[in-house]
Amino acid sequence: MKLNSIRQATVRAIVLGLCGVALTSAPAARAEDKMTVQSLIDRQLILDQITRYYYNFGKVDRQSEESFYTEDGELILGTRHYKGKEGIKQAYNRAPATPPAGAAAQSGAAGAGATPVAAAAPRERTAFNVAIENPLIVVHGDTATSQVIFTEYRQDKVGDPMKFTTQGKEYATWVKVKGQWLYKTRQIASGSNPPEGWKE
Predict the structure, then answer these.
(1) What is the model's pTM?
(2) For residues 195 and 187, is the Cβ–Cβ distance under 8 A?
(3) Residue 72: burial class (beta carbons within 10 Å; 0-12, 13-18, 19+)
(4) How far apart are CA 74 and CA 51, in angstroms?
(5) CA of 46: how far to CAs of 41, 42, 64, 82, in Å?
(6) pLDDT by residue (tens digit) across 61-120?
(7) β-sheet bridge partners, residue 133
(8) 174-184: string of b/e by CB count within 10 Å (b at 16+)?
(9) DSSP label at 36?
(10) What are residue 139's DSSP bridge partners?
């Protein structure tokens, strides 16, 4: 029993020592920002949220994208701005594509007693993956900023190899709400320059 307690104390001391080494050797994001154990935990929690957000894409049963945002959150895609949870929901739940030309006319001309035109078969679901790289996360208490590079891969058809399709950057601001980190703003940019007015 005594030997087990000594082992546990030794493991705890090693873990605390490693945390101390990490804190003293890790350069602060800026000179005025002090790295703390809490800021390291918060950085990891934000990275986990980003990872969950991107893993969500392409899933059949996905978590609602707006649940990752604050009530007044904003999604910025180029010149389009989607504000609040309802706006963000609309950005991801677009109306289905319009039917091919002539399909509406055919169904309208069919009349009440005629057989309706069959709806098009649903498209086969192909794989869609998004990888994130080079996360730069700066925590300021209960707010934070993050930058990540994202790369999208898709299949042309099921069984085909994945193909690189798009790469860009995400710039985001974060707020801690009831212990959970949520996007305040999330902006997608295709170039390497940050959005105008961006501050870490």
Answers:
(1) 0.69
(2) yes
(3) exposed
(4) 19
(5) 9, 6, 18, 21
(6) 889 999 999 999 999 998 999 999 999 999 988 544 444 444 443 333 333 333 344 455
(7) 149
(8) bbbeeeebbbb
(9) -
(10) 144
